[in-house]
Amino acid sequence: xxxxxxxxxxxxxxxxxxxxxxxxxxxxxxxxxxxxxxxxxxxxxxxxxxxxxxxxxxxxxxxxxxxxxxxxxxxxxxxxxxxxxxxxxxxxxxxxxxxxxxxxxxxxxxxxxxxxxxxxxxxxxxxxxxxxxxxxxxxxxxxxxxxxxxxxxxxxxxxxxxxxxxxxxxxxxxxxxxxxxxxxxxxxxxxxxxxxxxxxxxxxxxxxxxxxxxxxxxxxxxxxxxxxxxxxxxxxxxxxxxxxxxxxxxxxxxxxxxxxxxxxxxxxxxxxxxxxxxxxxxxxxxxxxxxxxxxxxxxxxxxxxxxxxxxxxxxxxxxxxxxxxxxxxxxxxxxxxxxxxxxxxxxxxxxxxxxxxxxxxxxxxxxxxxxxxxxxxxxxxxxxxxxxxxxxxxxxxxxxx
Length: 401
Ligand code: SF4
Fold this sequence. Notes:
Layout: H1 9-13, H2 16-30, E1 34-39, H3 44-47, E2 52-54, H4 56-70, E3 74-78, H5 81-90, E4 96-98, H6 107-110, H7 114-131, E5 135-142, H8 147-155, E6 159-161, H9 166-174, E7 186-192, H10 195-204, E8 223-226, H11 237-242, E9 245-248, H12 260-268, E10 272-275, H13 281-286, E11 289-290, H14 293-301, E12 308-312, H15 315-326, E13 331-334, H16 350-361, H17 373-389
Parallel strand pairs: 1-2, 1-3, 3-4, 5-6, 5-7, 7-9, 8-9, 10-11, 10-12, 12-13
Bound molecules: iron/sulfur cluster.
Iron/sulfur cluster is lined by residues 41, 80, 106-108, 144, 252-254, 314, 342, 344-345.
């Protein structure tokens, strides 16, 4: 996590309404030079200042197009660190991407360190060589990963994926990626950093992700969990070679809080359960529907009046969806009462936004997020492979209120 110096007292002591007024004044002053992006999980007091609202990849794509259209020089990304990196990768070099609080990281992205990934790659290749089998590994990384991991994946012939296109990217990889699979060749996926999205996607591809106790040892799991804290990922050479998908042992600290018992309670209340695929497999299996943030927003937007829902994703998004749905007589609540909050995203507040904008208005860029040019080039390869396979349906902002 990067270190964010504390803000001067005047920002910390200001009231929310004074900060809102000051931010609005600065936005007006900076005019078309500034673009403020708000991720769906951001708190309402910050979202109210966003020019564009969306999920991480779409926001970056919208921002790149909008910055070019209006000649913006500064993009202030009210999200987390990897999102600002993605915006920097996709926008022109003369646009500065700024993260209002440098300590707004993502615990999931931080679970896949570059050095650990290089070590894992070596160990996997060594196990394959020792086995004498003809296997090729294609890495896939969820876009919720650092630029360094995206670059690693791009360099090794792999692609990024989102929660909405992971199925398509898996299919491409299992077919050999950009080099079609030879008849005598086995393809293995290394999926980073979210084990749950990887496992849920592997399961939808018909790959066995757990051994059913009733079926016994005759059923062999086709996924294996790579734990970077353990030697050889905690796997035997045989397990490495046999697995068709190696799942990095990362997870989202928000979505892991949803549990099967929450689904059971929601069912007793007569609610349809809708979850994000970053939730654990046992939750996704029990849910009525699972899909990306955009899928969740669309499903609730189309829900019949009188219907009741429990939604398993970040609390600020669920609260906004629920407010809008209530106007149509649709009853929405978060799946768990633990108030699942992305605490890193929550570090971005009006005080930090105001502090950044004051500096920009004085001609000084603070908290710029800059990806190294070579990492940018390689990460772009991974992003472009994904976009070629699954172009985004639209780059129109998805708004909730
Ligand atoms: S919700 Fe999870 S994956 Fe998304 S930014 Fe927060 S910790 Fe990272």
